[in-house]
Amino acid sequence: MSIKAKIYERRGDGWVAMDNDLEGYLRSMSNEPSFIFADSKSLKGNEATSAPLHYMLQHFYGMPNDIWTKVHWESNGYYGCSDGRDEDADRHDTWFRFLVKQLFEKPGKAFPQDYDYTWDKLGFFTTWKKSGRKCMLCLDCPEDLVKNMRKSLDTASRDHFVVDPYAFHQIAVRGIVNLYDKSIWKIRDVVRTVEKTRPKARKPDVDYDHLHEAARHVIHSTETLLVSTQLLEQMMLRQRDRVNWLVNAPEEEKVCMRQVGDNLMFYHGMIHAFKCRSESMQARHQNEIQLAFNTVAQYHSHVAAVDSAAMKVIAALTAAFLPATFVSAIFSMSFFNNGGDNGTSASGGDGGGGGDEGWSLSDKFWIYWAFAIPLTVATIVLLAFSSKIMRRLGMV
User: Transmembrane region positions (predicted)?
Assistant: First the structure.
């Protein structure tokens, strides 16, 4: 099985680009510093066809033999290293991984569906021996990262690669910083769009699916930056240990190693700043989600208050007519008479022919008003002061 690779190798005062087969180049490479860029698609898993290349890479880069499992390939970041023994005592191998989420726009789509995304799953393996091979294998690097790393090589000191194995790492991390910068600003655009399009209408229309879709991107950004910050701290610590361990190294070499350490520290600070910015954006976006919930809750509360006021009017009208109805029902009074119900006239004579058919009013009608009016007034007063009475009694 062959894997095509893009290679940059140091020759003289410059770097030479070449295309070659990965396995063929590793068998014939010189001791000059080199960077190899390749696709890992054929390396994933434990297929029988990839086993020979797996074995060769494990031997060449000193990586763990379980590095090809799904656990490692799906990890959101790690860093590991090992030192050589016996005749390879000055050998130092490392393997590490970064994850970067990149958003890109899809014209014609509504927010946030107008953004799609890809994951940059970057794998790096280095082997370094002062008197031997010095090489970094870079897997699944996007074109932007390859260009940034190539540009960094033009200003990189050759002495750094000869003296310190982490000279390779500073080149890779510098390019990764640019990837994170691009990622964080694109995610910032998503958060800013949410802030600028918050509902301002009296009746809010909030699309919570959109809000939570944007939140997912911000959370992923914070996660990957947190992991990257931690693994860079591990990398810096290991590089510093090597400097402290090589107490008998010439001063010129120590200066080079300190420069490499300073560069890693600088890039670590950049990624830490990105992490802080991502955490800030996450808090801002959470505020927008909370504001949306509160705005909708406030609107529903207002609608409920209007409905409650309408119900109070209906209740008041009902209460106003209830006492009179109650009194009338209690006394079962017939205050009106049309004179034709029982054959008795209004004057009290026997009207064998049906009597007076006109309407008459009972002289006891005042009894109705004597009870109905006080009860109605008492009901209205009680209704008006009911809330105060209930608060005083501790019922509400």
Answer: 313-336, 366-385
Q: Does 18 score more than 90 pLDDT?
A: yes
- What does the DSSP assignment read for 56-88? HHHHHH---TTTTSHHHHT-S-EEEEEE--GGG
Calculate the alpha carbon distances from 335 to 338, 364, 368 in Å: 10, 7, 9
Alpha-carbon distance 253 to 164, whole Å? Answer: 8
pLDDT at 70: 86
pLDDT in tens, 243-294: 888 888 898 999 999 999 999 999 999 999 999 999 999 998 888 888 877 7
Helix ranges (DSSP H) in the chain:
22-28, 51-61, 70-73, 143-153, 158-163, 167-196, 208-245, 251-331, 365-384, 386-392
Pairwise CA distance, residues 205 & 57, whole Å:
56
Output the CA angle 175-126-18, nearest 5 degrees: 70
Tokens coding 64: 């763990």
- Output the six-digit token pair for 68: 């090809």
- Taking only the tens place, the pLDDT of each residue in 158-207 is 899 999 999 999 999 999 999 999 999 999 988 888 888 777 766 777 77
Contacts of 229 (CB under 8 A, 6+ apart): 268, 271, 272, 275
What are the DSSP calls for 245-301, one per residue?
H-TTS-HHHHHHHHHHHHHHHHHHHHHHHHHHHHHHHHHHHHHHHHHHHHHHHHHHH
Instruction: Give the integer Cα–Cα distance in Å for 14 and 153.
Output: 9
* CA pair distance 16, 7, nearest whole angstrom: 8
Q: What is the pLDDT of residues 90-101, one digit of tens each?
A: 899 999 999 999
User: Cβ-count burial of 204 within 10 angstroms (0-12 exposed, 13-18 middle, 19+ buried)?
Assistant: middle
Domains of the chain (ranges; CATH) run 4-299 (3.30.460.20), 307-392 (no CATH)
